[in-house]
Specification:
heterodimer, A: 164 residues, alpha+beta, Jelly Rolls, four-stranded antiparallel β-sheet, 18% helix, B: mainly alpha, 2 domains, two-stranded antiparallel ribbon, 5 strands
Chain lengths: 164, 305
């Protein structure tokens, strides 16, 4: 797929698929791809509800749902405001076809506060906020060794709040 | 300093590159537009790299339940008169009004459940069920939900779990059925109701050192995320109108200062919970507070009418 990017901060795109004679193929691809996420997201929702939410244990799930289908080597970022005085549990879960998911928490100056690599890739981390802060959660699905077929699966990020 | 990317690069889903292709030109044209929200939406080279590397970006707004927990822990009390009366439910006939008020009602249910107002929870859940049904959200709030609520009227824990489940089911249903703009309007309704309750429960004669006032000022951070989430769907007519309506809140937040220091992580050997230690300060003058209160109340009342 060729992408033509010009001017920093602004971009123009002319993918090869948009060239004359390829429109039917493009339409077919769009229709097929538009159908895929519904099924995948439905499976993600079920995975998040039945397999990830229990990981929150005694923390109360806040009701927000973040999940996406990621391939090995892909990353995702989540931004959230955490409020002073609250104790949170973050749970990051991947379907079993994926390797251990790496996640890190960064502050608003992008300093890394936690990385689950240092905790045997634990899928939860509990923390208490002294002051309200906007933090970033960075998710990485480790790439497969070269030559192996890359796997894809659902990754869910849930938050629990202490208070039970 | 804001951690947020200055422009939403992606919400979710593998179709994003196609959406990007179709919308790239108009997105670029919007890049320099000033909506007076205080949010810079230029696209940096680094973010472009994120887009083309397929990195997915999510914005997690405070959920209705988290908002209610935050209100209660900040010292707010219960005032049912502030809630959107359930009798209003029959007024909501459009997707816009139904989605906004579903978010508003779920925030009301969360607020009532935190203060053990179980009968009120039942009435509001029934109103939310009607709206969800009219929006075609078939599996979020059904008869089982109502029966489960009724059976657990004296069990606050279960009621809060039901509220959490209701919100998750509603938003995930909309997302998986490619109705993200409706989900975004629901989030907006919930967010507006949360800050409306906070502003109307706060003591405006006691601004300094007041926890609830601090939480209101800190809503500036989540407001940025509200605007980024909405701007993902700015090509939707309803959303475009809402961006203009709530943009005025951004003007007021620009005058409210929220500062935070670097975060230090404290791991005590006998405590499994890490402490994220930092200093934060916010200052909100009486004029800004009153202006925010009047503006938010006006927007919220226009949503529920």
């Amino acid at each position: 797929m060729s992408l033509f990017i010009s001017m920093p901060g602004r971009f123009r795109i002319k993918p090869a698929m948009f060239q004359k004679g390829r429109i039917p193929l493009l339409l077919l691809t769009v229709v097929l791809l538009a159908c895929l996420p519904s099924k995948a997201e439905g499976q993600c929702k079920s995975f998040a509800r039945h397999l990830c939410r229990p990981v929150l244990e005694n923390f109360r799930h806040d009701g927000n749902y973040h999940a996406a289908v990621l391939e090995q080597g892909e990353e995702a970022e989540l931004y959230k405001t955490f409020f002073a005085g609250q104790t949170y549990r973050i749970a990051v879960c991947g379907t079993e076809d994926l390797p251990d998911i790496e996640f890190s928490i960064l502050d608003n100056q992008r300093n890394e506060l936690y990385n689950n690599r240092t905790n045997d890739y634990s899928n939860t981390w509990d923390f208490r906020m002294e002051a309200s802060q906007q933090l970033m959660v960075r998710i990485k699905v480790p790439p497969d060794p070269p030559g192996n077929k890359s796997a894809a699966g659902c990754v869910a990020i849930l938050f629990g709040i202490s208070g039970r | 300093m804001s951690l947020l990317p200055s422009r939403p690069v992606l919400y979710a889903g593998p179709v994003f590159l196609f959406i990007l292709f179709f919308t790239a030109a108009c997105t670029c044209d919007r890049a320099g537009e000033d909506r007076n929200t205080g949010i810079n939406i230029d696209i940096s080279d680094e973010e472009l790299k994120d887009v083309f590397s397929g990195r997915q970006v999510f914005y997690a707004l405070p959920s209705p339940l988290e908002t209610a927990i935050m209100l209660k822990s900040a010292g707010a009390w219960y005032d049912e008169d502030l809630m959107n009366p359930v009798e209003n439910v029959s007024r909501y006939m459009t997707n816009r009004s139904m989605a906004l008020n579903l978010g508003i009602y779920i925030t009301n249910i969360s607020y009532a459940s935190l203060f053990d107002q179980t009968q009120t929870c039942m009435r509001y859940m029934d109103a939310a069920r009607q709206l969800a049904g009219n929006l075609g959200i078939t599996d979020a709030i059904d008869q089982n939900t109502m029966e489960s609520l009724e059976e657990n009227l004296h069990n606050q824990e279960v009621i809060m779990d039901i509220v959490s489940e209701t919100f998750m089911s509603s938003t995930s249903f909309l997302k998986e059925n490619n109705r993200e703009p409706v989900a975004a309007m629901m989030f907006l309704g919930g967010w507006i109701e949360g800050i409306y309750l906070a502003l109307n429960l706060a003591n405006e004669d006691d601004l300094a050192g007041n926890t609830l006032i601090n939480r209101i000022a800190e809503s500036k951070m989540s407001f940025e995320m509200v605007m980024l989430l909405l701007s993902d769907y700015a090509d939707n007519k309803d959303i475009a109108g809402l961006i203009d309506e709530v943009g005025e809140i951004g003007d007021i937040f620009e005058k409210i200062e929220v500062r935070s220091s670097r975060v230090n992580v404290i791991n005590a050997p006998d405590d499994p919970v890490a402490v994220l230690s930092s200093d934060a300060s916010s200052s909100i003058g009486r004029d800004e507070f009153l202006r925010l209160k009047v503006t938010v109340t006006g927007i919220r009342n226009s949503f529920i009418k």
